[in-house]
Write a structure and sequence with these properties.
The structure holds two protein chains of two kinds.
Chain A (H helix, E strand, L loop, with lengths): L1 H14 L2 H20 L6 H7 L2 H10 L8 H30 L7 H6 L2 E8 L5 H15 L5 E6 L5 E10 L6 H22 L1 E8 L3 E7 L6 E17 L5 E12 L2 E9 L4 E3 L2 E21 L5 E7 L3 E3 L6 E8 L8 E7 L5 E7 L5 H5 L4 E20 L3 H20 L3 E9 L6 E10 L3 H20 L3
Antiparallel strand pairs in A: 1-18, 2-3, 3-17, 4-5, 4-16, 5-6, 6-7, 7-8, 9-10, 10-11, 10-16, 12-13, 13-14, 14-15, 17-18
Chain B lengths: L1 H25 L2 H31 L10 H23 L5 H17 L18 H35 L12 H34 L7 H17 L5 H22 L10
The chains are: A alpha+beta, B mainly alpha.
Chain lengths: 467, 274
């Protein structure tokens, strides 16, 4: 039984130790580097371009390919959270007591522990202790208006023996560190809510089309039902003179149960939210839906029109070969809409070449094959690429961030300043009083030193000046 | 126009650096005055040039704050370092630190002006950067970086001084440095300024990413390295460790977050690379 208890204590000691905190922070910093050097979450083929198969397998086993979600990285984060919680719980009661019940009287031994102290003697000149204490109280409230606590000590026979004053400023600074620590836990909680209940997906919608399903990033095959319908009414993109995109916008409409409920134009940095989902403008593209080609056979002199979709092939009218429309580019090499065609040659090889809508004679003049092709028309449409997320934890994360900034500010920039003043009769001489002032600050010592000197010179001047 | 002025500023900062190093050797009040004046002059000129570049971008019809590519960020980085240094020099009268801090700013400007990798043209903003978050994110990050740069300079001074104190030598160049306690306190203070700024920088970055891409954290190399830096300084703040060394490591991480990630790693945050 005793053994068990001591091991419990040592476990708490372990989890609350500062050394563990420093060790974990340095460990987190060090291991985090791995995932910035090894690309994360790529396809196997991609990895095999820079690693040996065996290296790839090893990295995969070690979790290096998705390391920020690996069991061991999560374990370090959990340890870190535990350390923060245990450490804060261990020290908080003492701080709270210190915060709630400050020392309000100034004993001689306490005065010795303070960084700032000052003593003087004041001749009574007819004033009683209570009179002088009143003067001190007035001076103090001009120095730090408001919050002075007065404590009086009385003899057995009811005579006033000592008067203590105490005031403090910025005591919240002591709690700042706990606010910061809990903010980290709050951010963790927000992150967990997001990863458990949230969803990250995408959807491409052709201009003029509607959809009520999206796909998640991890699973491109299973559609997720949104519960409403989203339409991309139109899409626009503008370019700078140097060809870089300046801005792209999508006019989106949301339909709930067939009724239009929301209409918004979104662009990068200006998303749309509906039904718990947020739609972000993230990319765009064009589909060369269907292509119309004119093929001219120089051997037979015949011409024919072919219609086919990108990615498809069609047998030529002479039946001897086929053509594949492999790729569509809206502005290939700045020559306007173009389609890449693949054609088998007589000796069984493949050739590929581009045809341009703006230059019908291009293929005839350049390739000089048996047949030449003319790109007559492309039915092309823009599609808008939308990032779709649902993250119910995001507000918790922002709450944590706000707490953190507030906590850091309080912890770093607010100084807890305390002042004690004690007045009592001088035991060595009749009609004389002893005045002692003590002060402490947990930050910005030079500034407090000035403040303290200001107070003592004020007391010196006003209480003794008229002598 | 503005880039010519920035080239002049580079030379002024280099001159300031040389005079500060001279001050280490000659220790005359007069020399430190000259150094401070050179630095202040350079800083004012740089401030003017930044404003001018901002104005010129509007003249070109692509107006935006000059904080959008590597060139502009290097200029802004140097500007914030000198700003924070001048404040500290004014407040603590520690001209001795100039020799250890001005090189960071001078090197930043020199790199911006000389390196062929750094494009000094005013470029239009890509859609992702067209946001009000740009200024708050960049300003907080770079103020934090600059505070850490100053802290690193102080840490180097501290380590030199501490060694001398341990040997018990009372003469030579280091004898006139502030005591290691004063320097230690200053390391803490600069980090106490830098850390909240870095935290706000990371948070504004996360908020912006959430607004632009729908995810506040994606373990992108830039994000991860800023977090690595945050971890190192968080460890520093626990005290009880070799603070000066940690502060130097921290600044190495800052430099990697700022430059290394863009130049050596790939990721979402590629605006700063060219």
């Amino acid at each position: 039984m005793k053994n068990k208890q001591s091991s419990g204590f040592s476990l708490i000691a372990f989890f609350s130790s500062l050394k563990l905190t420093i060790f974990l922070l340095i460990t987190l910093a060090t291991v985090s580097i791995i995932g910035t050097v090894i690309p994360q979450n790529e396809f196997k083929e991609q990895y095999l371009r820079y690693y040996q198969e065996s290296t790839y397998e090893l990295f995969k086993k070690l979790g290096f390919l998705d390391m920020y979600h690996s069991w061991w990285f999560t374990a370090i984060l959990v340890l870190f959270a535990l350390n923060l919680i245990v450490c804060s719980c261990k020290h908080f009661p003492r701080t709270w007591k210190y915060f709630r019940e400050p020392v309000t009287t100034l004993s001689d031994s306490f005065l010795l522990t303070l960084a700032h102290e000052w003593r003087t003697r004041i001749n009574a000149r007819g004033r009683r202790l209570a009179d002088l204490a009143g003067e001190v109280a007035n001076l103090l409230s001009t120095f730090w208006p408001g919050n002075w606590q007065r404590h009086e000590e009385v003899d057995g026979d009811g005579r006033l023996r000592e008067v203590h004053f105490f005031a403090q400023r910025g005591r919240w600074s002591r709690l700042g560190v706990y606010v910061v620590h809990s903010s980290i836990i709050v951010i963790f909680i927000g992150g967990i809510i997001g990863s458990v209940f949230g969803l990250k997906g995408y959807v491409n919608i052709l201009e003029g089309d509607k959809t009520s399903t999206i796909y998640t990033r991890n699973d491109a095959r299973t559609p997720v039902e949104l519960g409403f319908t989203i339409e991309c009414r139109s899409f626009k993109v503008e370019f700078y003179d140097n060809g870089a995109p300046k801005e792209y916008t999508s006019d989106l409409v949301i339909y709930q149960d067939g009724k239009k409920v929301l209409e918004k134009t979104i662009e990068v940095n200006h998303p749309l939210s509906y039904g718990g989902y947020t739609f972000y403008q993230s990319s765009y593209g064009t589909t060369g839906g269907r292509v119309r080609l004119l093929v001219h056979d120089t051997k037979t002199g015949k011409e024919a029109t072919l219609t086919l979709a990108i990615g498809n092939k069609v047998t030529l009218p002479d039946g001897e070969a086929w053509v594949l429309a492999a790729q569509y580019e809206p502005n290939y090499m700045n020559l306007g809409p173009a389609v890449r065609l693949v054609l088998p040659t007589a000796d069984g090889k493949m050739i590929q070449f581009w045809v341009f809508q703006k230059y019908p004679q291009f293929d005839r003049q350049n390739r000089k094959g048996r047949r030449y092709f003319v790109l007559e028309d492309v039915d092309r449409r823009y599609y808008t690429g939308l990032q779709v997320t649902r993250d119910p934890g995001v507000w918790v994360v922002w709450l944590g961030c706000t707490l953190m900034v507030g906590g850091l500010f309080v912890a770093f920039f607010i100084s807890h300043r305390r002042l004690w003043v004690r007045l009592r009769p001088d035991p060595e001489k009749e009609n004389r009083f002893q005045l002692a002032v003590g002060g402490s600050a947990n930050k910005n010592q030079p500034a407090f030193e000035k403040e303290f000197a200001h107070l003592t010179s004020l007391l010196e001047e006003k209480l003794k000046g008229k002598q | 126009m503005n880039t010519h002025i920035f080239s002049i500023v580079t030379f002024i900062y280099l001159a300031g650096m040389v005079v500060y190093i001279g001050y280490l050797a000659f220790r005359s009040k007069w020399v430190s005055r000259v150094a401070s004046l050179i630095l202040l002059g350079g800083w004012l000129l740089q401030s003017f040039a930044i404003a001018l570049r901002w104005y010129e971008s509007y003249q070109m019809g692509i107006g935006h704050a000059p904080m959008s590519n590597l060139y502009e960020s290097l200029v802004f980085f140097s500007w914030t370092i000198i700003l924070i240094y001048l404040i500290i020099e004014y407040k603590y009268h520690l001209s001795i630190l100039g020799a250890f801090v001005t090189p960071f700013a001078a090197m930043g400007m020199a790199y911006a002006s000389i390196s062929p990798q750094v494009n000094e043209k005013i470029q239009p903003l890509v859609p992702a950067l067209q946001s009000n978050w740009l200024i708050s994110h960049v300003v907080t990050c770079f103020l934090g970086y600059a505070a850490f740069a100053v802290s690193c300079g102080v840490s180097i001074t501290y380590i030199l001084k501490k060694k001398q104190e341990e040997k018990g030598k009372k003469t030579g160049l280091l004898a006139s440095f502030p005591s290691s306690d004063v320097l230690d306190d200053l390391i803490y203070k600069t980090i106490a300024v830098g850390f909240p700024l870095l935290s706000i920088g990371i948070i504004t970055g996360a908020a912006w990413a959430n607004y632009a891409w729908g995810t506040y954290w994606s373990w992108d190399p830039k994000e991860t390295w800023s977090l690595i830096t945050w971890f190192i300084y968080a460890a520093f703040l626990q005290r009880g460790v070799k603070a000066a060394m940690l502060s130097i490591f921290g600044f190495v991480a800052v430099l990697f977050t700022y430059l290394g990630v863009n130049l050596l790693l790939s990721g979402l945050h590629s605006y700063g690379a060219g």
